Amino acid sequence: MRKKRVKVNFGNLLIFIVVIGLFTYGGIYVYNNFISDDTGNSNDKNSILNNNNEDKKVNKKLKELGYSNNDIEKLENNLSSEDIDKINEKYDNLVELSSVKYFHIENIERYQNLSDNSSYDAEEIVMRVNTQIDRDFYTDVKIVDDPNDPFVLVNKYYEVPQDYEPSDLVSVGNGQKMRSEAAEYVNKLIKDINADGLYLQAQSGFRSIDLQTRLYNNYVARDGVEEADTYSARPGSSEHHTGLAIDLSHDGTLEESFENTKQFDWLQKNAHKYGLILRYPKDKVYMTGYMYEPWHYRYVGVEVATLIKNEGITFEEYCVKYKGLY
Predict the structure, then answer these.
(1) Which of 45, 68, 175, 272 has the most other CB atoms within 10 Å of its CB?
(2) For residue 138, is it left (φ>0), alpha (ψ between -120 and 50) or beta?
(3) Residue-number span of the structural domain to which 101 is assigned
(4) Same domain for 218 and 88?
C-alpha cells in the first residue's frame, strides 16, 4: 500500500515560526529589562525593596525623633516626603497641626510656639501664623510681587512699592478714582442703590503715597502712633493705594454709625453681587489690625466676594485658604 504524502503548508509554517520567535524574544526582553539585572537579580524586586527601604528610612528617622508608630503613619499621610525630611525634632502637636490643609512645614516653629502659649485649636493656630498675626503688626513687612494683581493682599505685613500707581484709574462716583474694572462695578452699585431710593456716594478711592503720607502724619501728630495705627495705614500699607478700595457714605461722613443705616443693610445683602467685600469687619479687628469700618469696601470680583461672604471670612483668611498664603 502506498503511503499517503502529507502536504506541508509552508505559509502557515512560516507564520508559526515567527509567532514562536516573537514570544521567545519578548520573554527574554521582559526578563532582561524587568526581572533580571546583570547579576541575575530581579529589578522589580530590587525596586520594591528600595521603596521599602526608603519608607523604613523615613520611619526610622521619625522613630528616632520619638514619634510613635501611630503618629508616624498619620504624618506620612499628612506630609510629603520632602516635608518629613525637614523635621529635625519632635513637636508635640505636629500630627494635629499637619492635618490642617493649609499647614506649611516652614512655619512649624511658629505653629509650635503659638500652640505652647495659647489654647487655640490646630486650625486657628495655622491660620493665625499664616496670616502673620502671631507677630506684631508691621513686623517683617514684605513688598508684594505684583501690585497689579486684582487679588493682591495689602495690609500691615504686605506693602505695595512706594512708587506704584495703577495705570488704569478711572472716575467713580463723584470724582474719586479706582481701577477700571472695580470702578465699573462700584458705579453700577451706586446707580442701583440710588434706584432703590437710597442715596450713597463714593467718599474715597485711590490715594497716592504722598496723600497717604500726609494723612497718616497728621493723625500721628494728633493721636500718636499707637492710636493712629488702629485706623490709618502707614504709607505703602493702604488698600487705597491699590485702586481697589472705596469708602462709601450716605452723608459725606465716615462714622461707625453708618452700620445703622438702610444703606448699610442694603450693602450687607448686595455688595458681593458687585464684587465688593466689607474689608474690616467688627469681629476680625485682631486679624485686620484696623478698627471696624462699615464704610470701607474692597473689590475682589463677584466670585471671590461671594465666597468670602458665604464663609464669613476676611480677605486675609481667603488668601491663606485659597491662595496658599503663608
Answers:
(1) 272
(2) left
(3) 49-130
(4) no
